[in-house]
Design goal:
about 110 residues; mainly alpha; 5 helices; elongated
Amino acid sequence: MIDLGNLQQLTEGDAPLMKTLLDEFLNTTEEDLSSLDRAVKNQEGSEIASLAHRIKGSSLIVGASRLTALTEELEEAGKRSDTGKFKPLLLDIRECYDGVSEAIKNL
């Protein structure tokens, strides 16, 4: 679900720093997902693209490759205003994030 190799490199293996960054990832991603829910409900393509881009970046750092790929797909859909993809991708992102969140909490 996650590969901490990149994060370990960034933190030079500093376990307390890694924990802080993972906790921050969980907190900010929860907030971003709530905002993303509203943006999808209102079909705000540019806001969806922006929020998906933020989540994509933080997912990349923590090694959540599936979440990174899904948010990249939603970012592109937002840029194209491909409204038919918004809700299905958001559901996939939420499901994937739940798994990532659980994996992080179990570290």
